[in-house]
Amino acid sequence: MNQLKLRGFKFPRVSFSLFLGVKYLKARSREKMIPLITAISIFGVAIGVMALIVVLSVMGGFDRDLKKRILGVYPSIDVRIKGDVLPDYKEKGRDIEEVPNVVAAAPYVSGQIMAKIGNRIFGVILRGIDPEKEEKVSLYKEYLEKETYNLDPEKHPYSLVIGSEFARQFGVEVGDEIELVSPIAIPTPLGMASNNRKFLITGIFDSGMFEYDLNLVYCPLAAAQKMFGIGDSATGMAVKVRNLRDVFKVKKALREKLGSSFSVRTWIDINRNLFRALLTEKWVMFWILFLIVTVAAFNIASTLIMVVMEKTKEIGIIKALGATRWDVMKVFFIQGGTIGAFGTVIGFIGGMLLTYQLNTISNFIAKTTGFELFPKDIYYLDKIPTEVNYPEAGLVCAGAVLLSIIASLYPAWRASRLDPSEAIRYE
User: Fold this and answer.
1) Is 305 exposed, middle or buried (0-12, 13-18, 19+ CB in 10 A)?
2) pTM above 0.85, yes or no
3) What mean pLDDT value characterizes the chain?
4) C-alpha closest to that of 203 among 226, 175, 182
5) Which sequence spans correspond to the domains of the chain?
6) Average confidence (pLDDT) over 139-152
7) What's the CA gap between 240 and 247, in Å, rounded?
8) Is residue 352 within 8 Å of residue 53, measured between CB atoms?
9) Which residues contact 112 (CB under 8 A, 6 or more apart)?
């Protein structure tokens, strides 16, 4: 196409294929089904892209929040002696802190115990800690509710910090007493007797993770040692690493320093199956939802095939005027890519809006229907986590447009193969 001049201004040269591709999209069709199928194709691509962005954002947010909650309650590295307790935990703590990239080490005593509240008995995990040292290896203190207090071994030797879900389900609060019953019996002059003691609730923590807030309780280290009958020993050492990327290097260094009698596990080792299941679920959901975009691409192919059938005469004429096969193919590539691009843009905008309003929508549905889309007792977290990964969203959008262009390949090839004389013989 020649350049046009208007009062000294030169209009840029317009691609012949681009001109026809856009024209065919805007032109009225004699076949009324073509615009409808085009709209369905755009809608299909939009739905697929939107679903993929929302699902990937939720899975990414779930993975992020789960890791954050786990590291908030439990340490970067857990050190235990195989099949036994640590009698010299203070000395071992100093040895561990000498390892490069280790920030701090804190002893703990952990085990299952029974909580008795009135006539109700409930199993919990009792974790005995040194509050000052624990604050250096976890987010324990940050999770304490402001109106509650930390553990105070000197003032209350048998103080207890419980989770917010535990407090809610059993109707207890700060100042109440709970009886804990240990599975370890203690010797008395009359024989073995059950080891049970009343603990005073001095604090409530809220980690935002349902499982921890319901089943985990904290007490002073000395109190847990007495409940489990292990004397002045610890179950293990909680270790915080300066940089999580170096966690496996620190693990190797700790194994070399402590010896083979110690078990050294990172937070990834402890939760390996959980993270593997999350990754598998994320990619399975990705490929299942990507099928929606694939179906929409087939609709694009069928739309362009109908356009080729309707525009047979026009294609024959432009080929007779000198258009090459590649020129004709580009016309339909542009059509397919434009349809895919429109659907992708709509899907991207819809996906972003839905992602950022997901909790608002979930709360509205729960209030109006009573149905919870995200039950806390199933998904561990107290709200739907979302995190938009823009590189992933970009790949989804690029993949949708590319798939739309690939779907245009066969119709474009058919159009380029038309014989001009046959196409206009009966016109």
Assistant:
1) middle
2) no
3) 81
4) 175
5) 14-66+274-423, 83-260
6) 76
7) 9
8) yes
9) 123, 124, 125, 126, 183
